């Protein structure tokens, strides 16, 4: 079973042991499942009557709004009925349903064994209430929901998918009665999930070295070791860099991480956090930065008042250093093609403060048009890695998580995506003037070969200290079309999604990605829209759209 989680970001300070160098960590707390209010997953099981056929068979339909739990073929649930005295009824004693397929017409289709009465499910017996649970186990025959919850034991070793999912107990909040011939269950995760992510394990060249994140004796539970954690296999056959582990809060109400980050200097850490049922706790450790912090500029925005998305006047209250150049110009990223003569930048980055750098889809840790390793691959409308928009809900954030492209992979350390409010503070605390105009081909990007676009370089100068400034190049956006193919003459063709590759759209405007998901449109994100005469935050950018990225870091931001 694939579990997806709703983000509710809460960050905490890390307790530091006396060490050579302190290790820094942030913690994100996420709801693993939610109640049936459009934010959960509802499981429909039809109480079919004779004659039984495929159309009337037991099935489910899941609500796909971005925060649900998805089942895979072969996953099994158990369904049990209890009478008014709380006793399991023989007619529906741990009936197994197996997920078979997912079709457009009938949703998620389940099969079951016939019960003792010869029915594919069970009639609406007077006074009988039902519950479902995952994962199915015959040992729960004759057991109530309370029996399962109290008797369930998570595996100490969860390093395989089977071991991990077998420990991911899900139960409804209460037993229910059939309604209109259906049983409708809202399954909730009963364990807490701990996820460990260390951004220094991401290797831009694709070569992952020896694991440098170590857990020592003193970690609670003691069975939580990296060898016991589950790492999902990705489409390319590699393993996810996030280490996941399920914990039962009734037996282990507090998780304690004790260990070290083994880099040039060993950095020790010790961090304890209470855990609750149905939440995922993502601990993000900061590795050594690939780009020097000296490449950041303090625009003196700490105390600049601005109006936030809720209409409240506020200040940041902490220092933000803005990089001098865009992601893609740091000498660590590599383009698939050399730029054409006269274009800004180089194939391996140039640290040109006026160059556009590269384009990225929100949440992806590779470039919008190429992952830097396997050649030319455009990601967009049909091939975006998070097509169901599950990595964060409305108004959520990917700041300093494994989905933050600046923090996770290319720049690492404390570098990360800017927030909406950091852009708002920039708008209010800086002057924006035209520095220069330049033209460039699209050789590195999707579009008609040889086409030239004109871009503006905007100088952003601190009002508090005019000696502090950065340059923001306009760059438009890549329109979200997919892998571009070339015809016999070398011209780009339709990408197969009903769109024609347009290459760069609106080149006279700067579209800079923020770490914030749109507060109103699930499939969209918030971004900075900057032109010579307008500076606003928009919330309608598709998550798969390729935008520019300007990394920041904030050394004294409250955790």
Helix content range of the residues, please? under 10%
Assembly annotation: single chain
Number of continuous helical runs: 4
Strands of the widest sheet, in order across it, are 2-4-19-14-16
- Class computed from helices, strands and strand pairing: mainly beta
Biggest sheet architecture: 5 strands, mixed
The outline comes out as elongated
Mean pLDDT: 76
Distance between the termini: 33 Å
Task: Provide the descriptors you would attach to this structure in a database record.
559 residues, disordered N terminus, mainly beta, 5-stranded mixed β-sheet
Structure, explained:
Strand 17 and strand 18 form a beta hairpin. The strands form ten sheets. The protein has a five-stranded mixed β-sheet, with no helix packed on it. Strands 6-10-9-8-11 form a five-stranded antiparallel β-sheet, with no helix packed on it. The chain has a four-stranded mixed β-sheet with strand order 3-18-17-15, with no helix packed on it. The chain is mainly beta and 559 residues long. Helices cover 5% and strands 30% of the residues. It is built from four helices and 32 strands.
Secondary structure layout:
Layout: E1 2-3, E2 6-8, E3 21-22, E4 25-31, E5 42-46, E6 59-60, E7 69-70, E8 76-82, E9 95-103, E10 107-112, E11 129-133, H1 145-151, H2 161-166, E12 170-172, E13 182-189, E14 192-198, E15 213-215, E16 243-247, E17 254-262, E18 266-274, E19 279-285, E20 296-298, E21 306-307, E22 313-314, E23 321-323, H3 405-410, H4 420-429, E24 430-441, E25 452-462, E26 469-473, E27 477-478, E28 504-505, E29 510-517, E30 524-530, E31 535-542, E32 552-553
Parallel strand pairs: 3-18, 14-19
Antiparallel strand pairs: 1-7, 2-4, 4-19, 5-13, 6-10, 8-9, 8-11, 9-10, 12-13, 14-16, 15-17, 17-18, 20-23, 21-22, 23-32, 24-25, 25-26, 27-28, 29-30, 30-31
